Amino acid sequence: MKRTASAHWAGSGKEGKGHLSTESQVLQQTQYSFSSRFEEGIGTNPEELIAAAHAGCFTMKLSFVLQAAGFVATSLDTRATVTLENGAIPAIHLDCEAQVPGLDQDKFQEFAAEAKANCPVSKVLNAEISLSASLK
């Protein structure tokens, strides 16, 4: 399986503007710029998209890990925070809250750690990935 996305940019790094599109058309010429990346401008940015991808991938992987152990989550909510420093992404923090009937906290921590280590996005990133996971 392969998935594609494209980026277009015109102008300098600070004054230029661009847009991002995805094969699925979820993003269709979605704007991004210096201000949407480094300030509070309108549009998205690569770090936000990495955070969304990581949160989604981890959460789905955790669902599969739980299923393999005989559990089904009522809800899994994950927030990924990407840190950008000096032109690099040194760290990503995943914060997951879950409702899983019949599961104890220790076993949940084990399953969450397994999902963090083995989701495809975690495996591709060269960053320190931390995790806070709790059952509601």
Biggest β-sheet strands, sense, barrel: 3 strands, antiparallel
Give the overall form: elongated
Structural class by sheet pairing and helices? alpha+beta
- By DSSP, the count of extended strands is 6
Radius of gyration: 17 Å
**Name of the CATH homologous superfamily of the largest domain:** K homology (KH) domain
Return the domain count: 2
Unreliable sequence segments: none
What does the average pLDDT come to? 95
Summarize the amount of helix as a percent range: 25-40%
Strands side by side in the biggest sheet:
1-2-3
Question: H/E element string?
Answer: EEEHHEEHHE
Q: In CATH terms, what is the architecture of the largest domain?
A: 2-Layer Sandwich
If helices are DSSP runs of H or I spanning 4 or more residues, what is the number of helices? Answer: 4
β content, as a range? Answer: 25-35%
